[in-house]
Amino acid sequence: MTAVEVLGIGRDFVSSGRRVTALEQVDFTVDEGEIVALLGENGAGKTTLTKILATLLLPSRGTARVFGVDVVARPQEVRRHQSVVFGGERGFYQRLSARENLRFFAMLNGASPRGLRELVERSLERAGLADAAGRAVETYSRGMRQRLHLAVGFATSPRLMLLDEPTIGLDPVEAARLRAEISGLRDQGVTILLTSHHLLDVEELADRVVALHKGRVVEDMPLADFTRRAGFAAVLRVAGRGAPPAPRVCKGIRVRGRNQAEGTGERQGTWTLEIEIEEWGTVSLGEISALLDGCAVTDFDVTPARLEDSFRRLYETPRP
């Protein structure tokens, strides 16, 4: 079943007396149980699109549906199917405890009074806030407030979760814990639309990537295919002593950085080399062997291509 349909969505704003287009012509779908990451530079339109799907903002044109329900025509019904996590410092009653805030927002989002207490406690536990649930939110750190936003999202048992920068403000341990929770939601059949500048979130969670640029979709493909858009499979960093490798024309690999130490001291006579490997195989391995033949290699390190490399290549390439 299709969970999200976005058909020709556009959104315009008026700023300083002139029209500004945040979304131009956006089309994509999300299947039920799928995690799709919205990628893009600041201002690409990710949050605007998320707010439209959350029924918090009206589109200027086009149609968006959540489980077949039009977000403009029947917003109340759409809200019953989904939960939205925008995060940030605001959005709570500062003098109330986390438990009190969560109880209020859960009821506001349609949670039944029956079993509400168990629902609130379970959501606090999942978000890692059980031990601090009785404290006033004004005493919370930024990371704790972010976890409380997530607890609100967990409390409504949604079919669709819209997550906008869910790990912002979290330390690496908390972020890893949250990613495990999000992955568990997918196992339960929950559909997730995720935006994050923390690309590790996308690498570990997303099934597919939809990339926006100036309000338009410029890529829509499985995560593995998008990662290959980096243009190389890995970077090999080699260090050695004595004579460095002689420049030569290679197939399947590119030498993208050379450095030979000068002067005196411990590093005298040492060199380093960066080799970009287009694709692992007999050709590239043979070329690396030939390039380094006769060299005194002292160390090497292999770094596979990451999502960040694909992202940078996509947005650093000039577009018409």
TrEMBL record:
This is ABC transporter domain-containing protein. Transmembrane segments: none annotated. InterPro entries: AAA+_ATPase, ABC_transporter-like_ATP-bd, ABC_transporter_ATP-binding, P-loop_NTPase. It comes from Streptomyces venetus. The keyword ATP-binding applies. Belongs to the ABC transporter superfamily. Keywords: Antibiotic resistance, ATP-binding, Nucleotide-binding, Transport. It is found in: Cell membrane. It is a peripheral membrane protein. Residues 4-239 form the ABC transporter domain. Its main location: membrane. It comes from the Bacteria.
